Amino acid sequence: MDLQWRTGVKIVPRHWSSLNDFRITMSALEAAYEDAQKLHLKVKAVLVTNPSNPLGRTLIQEEVNSLISLASDKEIHIINDEVFSRTVVYSPCFTSVMEAVSDRNLQDCSVWSRIHVVYSLSKHLGPSGFRVGMIYSNNEAIVSAATKKS
Predict the structure, then answer these.
(1) What is the pTM of this model?
(2) I need a surface site. Which of 29, 59, 80, 126 has the fewest CB within 10 A?
(3) Spatial contact of 96 and 80, defined as CB atoms under 8 Å apart
(4) Cα separation of 117 and 97, whole Å?
(5) In this structure, what DSSP letter does residue 138 have?
(6) What confidence tens digit (pLDDT) does each residue in 66-95 have?
(7) CA 77 centroid distance within chain
C-alpha cells in the first residue's frame, strides 16, 4: 500500500463481510483494536472511506457513532475519506463524521480535535488531470502541517 510505503505506518486492515451487508460493528472495531495491540502496535487512528469505493455504501448513523465512541474511548484519531460524498445515488443519506460529532455536541471534547476529513474535487467534478484535495480538521498541528505542504 502506498500509504504504508510513504509514511512507514503499519496498517491493520479489516475485511468486512456481505453476511452483515458490510456493516462496521463496535465489536469488530474492538477486535481490530485488540488485534493491533497483540501485534504490539500503538493504534493512533482509524482510516475509513465513507461512502465506500467501489460499493458506494454509506455508513449508517450507528456505524458513525461506533467510530466516534472508539475514538473517544481509546483516544485515537478518525481519518474519514469523504471523496465520494457528493456522488451518492442509492445509499441512505450520507452523514459526515464531522457532522455526527457536532450532532452529539462533542465540539468541546478532546475527540473534536481527533476527527479529520479528507476530500478531493477530482472525484466529484471529474476534471481530467486536475488534482485538488483538502483536509478539514480542528487540530492545529494537522492544519499547520497541511498549510506548510500546500
Answers:
(1) 0.83
(2) 126
(3) yes
(4) 8
(5) S
(6) 999 999 999 999 999 888 777 776 656 778
(7) 9
